[in-house]
Amino acid sequence: MSARSLRPHRDDVLLAVVSVLAGLALWSLGVHSNNSRHLLPDWAALVPLVVLGAMELLRRTAPRVTLAVGTAGIIADQFTLGNLATVLIFTDLMYAAVVYGKPAMARRLPVSTGLITVAVTIAAVAWLRTPQALLIGVITGIVSFGPALTGATLRNHREAAVAARLRAEQTALLAEMDRSQAVAAERARMARELHDMVANHLSAIAIHSTAALSIDTPETSRDALGVIRENSVQGLAEMRRLIGLLRDAGAEQEAVAVPSLDGLEALLGQARTNGSASGLDFVLVDERPPGPPLPAPVELAAYRIVQESLTNALKHASPGSVAVRVARTGGTLTVAVDSPYGDRPGPRAPGSGAGLVGMRERAELLGGEFTAGRSGSLWRVRASLPAEVEAVEA
User: Fold this and answer.
1) What pLDDT sits at residue 254?
2) How far is CA 265 from CA 128, 319, 334, in A?
């Protein structure tokens, strides 16, 4: 144990000085606790007083030592004139041993002092056989068991307060983690929505503007500008819709329409217009049986997967037919998009790969599956989504 760790607390120094001075004052005034049964000279009562007063300096840093010395001192005090200050100092040392001692000692002291009090009471009554003998047990309990019980109560309250503070800190930390995860999830959702809504229009604009620059004819430029204008207007409308989603929705604000599978035909019509210059044709095969609509999250995810697949076809597919198939079998909605894969003449729009990541995230968030990759001369996209409301809500 280092010297710094044994340095007394300033409150303990003050307590030691006041206790010793009070004991000296009582001794000088002739106030003693054992006037009729002392065996040593009068000045001997000052030795336990000074020793126990010195132990007050170590009551926080070495409670086990102070309790052992204090016990020996209070026993020695019984063979002198006695000093009330010495008894009070011992009660404080007992209290400090429970409050500042190790947990094991703090648990044992109230029990052991309680048993000692009972034993002393029984022994005193059996020996003296007078009702006044009970006072010896009462005094023993006040000097030993009382301080130990008080210290144990205070320590339990402190430990409960520390545990409550730790729980509060852990709860705040978990809440902050939940908030961070919620923010990250919302940002990822916004990124997917922004990419899926705008990438299709911007890809068409990039392809047709590149074609207009590469093939410098009035007819080509006029057609390209028409497609660019149409996609610019639609992209602006989508951006306005996204901004509306990001704003705080008031109680009287109308709900913003969410894309659904009913809009696939219009989506493919737009793709035909954008892909005609690249030699692409788009075919929709809708094999969904008649019935109630699917859950809104499923409809939106399927729509966005088809939309992103068409965007990738506009960017990278070679001339040919792009087939989109949507089917529902039991509790599963299947989305399949096949596009020609190979060398492509003419302009291309750059890609970042974020579209595939977004499609996979959309499927996995609903508990579905997603695959995409080359199969011979085709690029195949497959998504299986749960079509039941219970599965989506779970």
Assistant:
1) 45
2) 108, 21, 17
pTM of the model: 0.51
Strand 369-375 with 378-386, pairing: antiparallel
Shared-domain flag, residues 286 and 138: no
Tally of structural domains, the chain: 2
- Domain identity same for 146 and 270: no
∠ Cα 319 322 323 (to 5°): 155
Separation of alpha carbons 306 and 355, rounded Å: 11
**Please, which residues bridge with residue 287 across strands?**
327
Give the number of other Cβ atoms within 10 Å of residue 274's Cβ: 25
How many helices (H) and strands (E) in the chain? 12, 5
CA atoms within 13 A on the CB side of 93: 30
Strand 280-287 with 320-329, pairing: parallel
Same domain, 166 and 270: no
Residue 21 is predicted with a pLDDT of 94
Residue recorded with tokens 């210290």: 151
Residues 142 and 273 in one domain: no
Q: Which residues of the chain have pLDDT under 50?
A: 249-255
Residue 183 lies in a domain: no
What pLDDT is attached to residue 389?
A: 53
Residue 1 lies in a domain: no
Domain that residue 378 falls in: 260-394
End position of a domain, from candidates 140, 156, 171:
171
Residues sharing a CB contact under 8 Å with residue 214, sequence separation 6 or more, in sequence order: 346, 347
- Please indicate, yes or no, if residue 315 is contained in any of the structural domains: yes
- What's the confidence (pLDDT) of residue 147? 93
Q: Which of 89, 83, 87 is nearest to 30 (CA)?
A: 83
Rounded to 10 degrees, the C-alpha dihedral 160/166/172/175 comes to -100
Q: Any bridge partners for residue 373, and if so which?
A: 380
Report the candidate in 359, 366, 365, 361 with the shortest Cα–Cα distance to residue 389.
Answer: 366
CATH number at residue 371: 3.30.565.10
Are residues 139 and 18 both part of a single domain? Answer: yes
